[in-house]
Structure prediction request, 360 residues.
Amino acid sequence: MDFFKKLQLIDKSKENIVITVVSGKNINSKLLLSNGETIYTNNEMLNWDEIIKAVPHNNKSRLIIVGNDKVYIEFLRQSYNVVVCGAGHVSIPVIRMCKLLDLPVTVIDDRITFADNALNAGADRVICEPFDKALEEIRSDNGTFFVIVTRGHRYDQICLQKIIHKENAYVGMIGSRLRVAKVLDYLEEQGIDREKLNKVYTPIGLKIGAETPAEIAVSIMAQIVEVKNKKIGSSTYSDELMECILGEKYKGIPKAMVTIVSRKGSAPREVGTKMAVLKDGTMVGTIGGGCVEADLRHHALLCMDNNESKLVQSDMTGMDSEEEGMVCGGVLDLFIEPLVNSEAGMKIKVVSMKCRAKER
Prediction:
């Protein structure tokens, strides 16, 4: 479990890559890189340099071939957070949607009543101070989304002037085109590079004809989700999965992890999707449901019994799937690794599965 303990401690604002050999004599050999630095490996004898040279430059998780081995390159999704400047009528539904999307949210407002409203709406952190002072306290990174929805363009201008120099994933500012143009022109006159200003999403939100505060909040959050999800092919070890592996609830129960390492066609889940299978049959997480998971549970139990890893293929394109009314088709390659004594070398076994799912 040393790998998962290291994984739990890494700086999620950095570029983190997990490399796993999924075939051959070095199966289950792992390397964890953080901004190019080796944080963990369970096989120091392996020529990792050759594999690192083959890592794709587009940050897209994928299965590659290095020499005679299949290797899964996994770009880890970074952590995200939202900072909302202003706690008015639009901010409240934004806060609530952030909570639904598991996005930690900080709210800034200099009015105590409005700050209390933000706290009651579920904000993780509320700063009741002048905007310029509060923003000096905010530590941001390339996973921070800034939402500027204050009560007036003077405050918008103060916020943007502070935020524009901070590292971020997104900056959005509310306002009419005329009001926005005045703010941007003024800041350019103050010496801020126009190219930086042009990257601000303003007027904020997707164009969905939003009118009410709730509708505007929907357009804002939809735009944030769109920007966030453009980072293709990244994956994550969810809190639920990490708790299953390292927490007390399932401590002592043998378990295996299943990861989608390749996908062709319209399979229901993306590369990098994971679930854990426990010896008692419990499954934590999902890779698509239906017969796929039922078959994988069987193979995962065998992996635990035999203490070996498998690269399995699930084919959802055949007639069997069609006759059962399965909506999604496609072919998945999945890597199953026992998490008890998983650091030892294991022998590869390839299994083909025909899916007869009745549901996605």
About this structure: The CA atoms of residues 26 and 46 lie 8 Å apart. Residues 2-76+234-354 form one domain. The two ends are 32 Å apart (CA to CA). The chain is about 30% helix and 25% strand.
